[in-house]
Amino acid sequence: MKDYYQILGIEKSASEDDVKKAFRKLAQKYHPDKKGGDEKKFKEASEAYAVLSDKKKRAEYDTYGRTFAGGGAGGPQGGFNGFDFSNFQGFNGQGQQFEFDLGDIFGEFFNAGGGARAETRGRDVSIDIELSFRESIFGVERRVLVSKVGQCDICAGSGAKKGSSLVSCSTCNGKGDIRETRNSFFGTFTTTRACPKCNGRGQMPETPCESCGGAGVRKRQEEIVITVPPGVSDGEMIRMPGRGEATAGGSSGDLYVKLHVKHDAAFTRDGNNLLTSLQIKLTDALLGGDYKIQTLDGDTTISVAAGVVHGEMIRVKGLGVPHGRGGRGDLLVRIDILFPKKLSASAKKLIQELRAEGL
What we know:
Blueprint: H1 4-8, H2 16-30, H3 39-52, H4 55-64, H5 102-105, E1 125-131, H6 133-138, E2 140-151, E3 166-168, E4 177-184, E5 187-194, E6 203-205, E7 217-228, E8 237-240, E9 255-261, E10 268-270, E11 273-281, H7 282-287, E12 289-295, E13 298-304, E14 313-316, E15 331-338, H8 345-356
Parallel strand pairs: 1-9, 11-15
Antiparallel strand pairs: 2-7, 3-6, 4-5, 8-9, 10-11, 12-13, 14-15
């Protein structure tokens, strides 16, 4: 007896959604029309799905190890070596209706029914830029030169020489796509693909552009303005839709900009807060005082209270990282007390007097 759960790679307690996902994965992997597909394993997965996706058949299979309504371990009838594909939508519309059809599962192999073809898309492009710590906090605008396939700047993407017109493509009769009939063990299917002559545009230049050869796209350097928003982090990625490589007769890919933030000697970041340190003398720690410190916004003065302890944090409101809520985090100043390594005779005497007073 076949173990349908093992064939789909799921547990007996698997939900209907788990069954569907497992079958979809195996169907895409083993479909015979796909290079490297396995017809035998595809049949097994299809048979297992036909049983386990049907509540009644699944209950019979779990109880008796077979089903009695046709299909499954008891000797299914009709269809494809015992598996009845009429259960799927798109095959005469008979039998149980599943949540997805073969056109959905095998869309990457063929376009069942000759529906609209998928639009071609240019390649995505990835670049890296380095930011100073301050630029990562407040944002910056960068202009970079990217070498990529882009719209031809001579013919503005038309592919035609200046002054020349466009004519209807003779291969696709101006439709932009062509249909082909394919034979499969499922039957005969009509597939739609972009016309290879006009790249899906339906028109051809009467006289091709000398720069791009009529393609409308060519490899060139393009200056791109990148707006880095405030508060970005090291390793963050900015996606710029449509700024990747162009392709003839299709849409452009995306540009991905990876950000690298340089280390800063004075500041570190903790969420929306900035951290820095301030070194003070022991006498100022005991008596308190005002200190001028450097911030990313310029110099400011903070007050250190008498009796401050080593490692204590002083919070300066609103001088941290800008965030999406329209505000800013805080600047946290860590107090580092400098203890003298050597004492003069007079200083030592004074400290001994303090000790005598119990301080």
